[in-house]
Queue: 2 jobs
Job 1
Amino acid sequence: MNSISLCGPSLVRRTCSYLVVVRRFCNRSFDGGNGENKYDCFEEPLKRMWGSSYFDSAMDEKPDVSADETMARPRFSARRSFFEVARIDAGRVLEVLRQDGPGFDSKLALDELHIRVSGLLVREVLTGILRMVNYSNKIRCAKLGFKFFTWSSQQGNYRHTANTYHILMKIFAECEEFKAMWRLVDEMIEKGFPTTARTFNILICTCGEAGLARRVVERFIKSKTFNYRPFKHSYNAILHCLLVASQYKLIEWVYQQMLAEGHYPDILTYNVLICAKYRLGKLDQFHRLLDEMGRNGFSPDLHTYNILLHVLGKGDKPLAALNLLNHMKEVGFDPGVLHFTTLIDGLSRAGNLDACQYFFNEMIKNGCMPDVVCYTVMITVYVVAGELENAQRMFDEMITKGQVPNVFTYNSLIRGLCMAGKFEEACSMLKDMESRGCNPNFLVYSTLVGNLRNAGKLSEAHEVVKHMVEKGQYVHLLSKFKGYKRC
């Protein structure tokens, strides 16, 4: 490594307790992580720990295929046919709903379609309505969602699931129909559906800004229908959901309620709390929690190490980070691409390009092949440092290695090209994205249009907006970049 030395006495000894290790590794000189997050490499894995507990399954009913059909052709063919028919029917339903208005009886038109209502069909239609929501049609989309939800519930041999309730809740939330959303929650409970972490997640994300977050939490703490599997107890489920929603202050409050009720923390509890304390910049409490973990006999898991590596990276402590990686190996944890990516991301925020390059190479030496997230972090490191040539080299390398760039990868490279004044190449990246099956989203368009406008290239920016019209993304951009005419 060019500008730093990684030699010197190790801070880790096999006989060191965990408490001593974290005390030495994580001193109080790092910042509290209050800056804006690009990737949240250290937090996202913890948020996804039990993804199935707060996201409903994609299919909560099986395709209704008769025995004769199953015998007549391969099962996968019947299943594929079921999905295709449901998607075609969903398109027909959405076309009818788009015509809804004065003088048009949408319920009668839906009846005349003579379609088979299934869970998949209902989810496809509601999800389609959810995708239609924008700043100009919120009231209409909320009405269409509720109208179809009511109509489908009246069809024979069909009963709404918790998942369909959740999708309509999400529609109401996006349309800012909060009273309707709460009425739907009450109806869901009355119908005998348990309120899950997914229910909680939708409500807390919606009501947090309105100052209702604590009331939502209190309701779920007291709820007898809150389904909190596979968590140890409901408090952990609530803490985990609050982490997903980035409600760090509420995490502290819920933890105090948890202790008051006589519940004891486990490693998940501590990991969530440590994240919250770090995000809030409460460094003394961050360290006290680490001490408490050790005293209570909890050893760090892969998520704990991930948090500590981010802290050390952002605190620009590559030597301590290297020692922690070595300690992980000594205690039986092999650092993976996640841990190296988290460390590199933290070091990039500290502006230590040399350390980023070193640990990227060390990761490969340790047999960890970088994934798309790791490559994207490195590309961004080079872009921020003004080393566009290295960013493009890294981009080419990831493609050669079989890693498919995502929208964040392209967004970083487009930003770098714009910073270097290479606007023609930046615009051509849109075609490159699409040729690789990666559709540009609002983030990419916003970066490109914003930089073109700032450079006075209004005609080029207008061309990008026209491209957005074709892709159905123009409404979001026009709401941000005012002054453009609708194409």
Job 2
Amino acid sequence: MGRKRVYGMTLMLMCLCSVASGLSFGREPKTVLATLCFFRFWLGFGIGGDYPLSATIMSEYANKKTRGAFIAAVFAMQGFGILAGGIFAIIISAAFEASFKAPAYEVDALGSTVPQADYVWRIILMVGALPALLTYYWRMKMPETARYTALVAKNVQQATADMEKVMQVDIGTEQKEPALSADTAVKSSNEFGLFTKQFISRHGLHLLGTTSTWFLLDIAYYSQNLFQKDIFTAIGWIPAAKTMSAIEEVYKIARAQTLIALCSTVPGYWFTVFLIDRIGRFTIQLLGFSMMTIFMFALAIPYNHWTHPGNHIGFVVLYSLTFFFANFGPNATTFVVPAEIFPARLRSTCHGISAASGKLGAMVGAFGFLYLAQPQDKTKADAGYPAGIGVRNSLIVLGVVNLLGIFFTFLVPESKGRSLEEMSRENDDSSEAGAEVENHSSDNRTVPV
């Protein structure tokens, strides 16, 4: 269907489902949760399309010298989104807390969640649609990428016209008529599908590398992200939930997560943007996984030390550094590399497969940590949960996961300073096809690349 067309569809799907998530219908908890899950599923469907398209479109527009920085910058804007979401949650929860006072949960379990608290989460979810909606006009004005039009849609004339529009130069559309008509076109050896021996022999290990590293990263990254509050509570940085009202808890968790984003997440993204085309994707990913492994073990092995009063700041600093090196590391590079190393026809598909593998890792990390982090003493575990291995041992498991990420990084090729066609070997195929056409051509016209 093309990059541009689906890009608009995914945006509208995300915006509609963000608003619908906040409207989640019904009064009963089961009804609200059922409709919330329904709309969040379709929101995820939209995001699942937006991820590979954003990376692919930028990779196909950028030049080889700055391509990594441009794709990383697209991903780095996520950091500002995280920051903006956290700040907005702080503002909304502070406003509601000031307007609707409530006792702590341990004082009055039912009264600690005032009826107006129902608006807090709804407003936060719905406002997320606004910045996305503002980009719709520019997405629709953006031309289709020339690589898709020329290499996939096989319309070289339209690709040339689009390139003239983007680059604001006159390439000479009338002189660039495609040399290969439907009758004379020779099928390139690059016309293989995803489920073919040729794809497996050329890109099988590459796809294994991008999927496995993204899978392993997200096990560690999302378990850390989703359970920051549990870790911060365990070390005493956030008060126990029972000592706060519902809205106060939102405020304090949002404040802690925003601080982490400001001090480590956002800087990590932009370090990648500035350095990725200088030191390369492979080096950054290897460095990131290595440092995450070191810091995770530094948190886990002396874990009892960090839980004592006075040592919390040291724990938060090390914990922040794991986020910094995730973002100045595999969290950025796993987004960049799949958009560079596969053929144009399969580029966004392979990126989508890699991203889906990452989200599978996020599910494993989220549910796994939820159960693993429970205390080993069953009497101290949360209601409804079996005994786990404790936070300390869970952090050791995450350290091992990061260590595995180091080994699988060696399956991913370095794409710094190399063109997309060079990485996917489409140039080789074009040369072979061009030579074959020239041998059979009566008018000796050249094939535009």
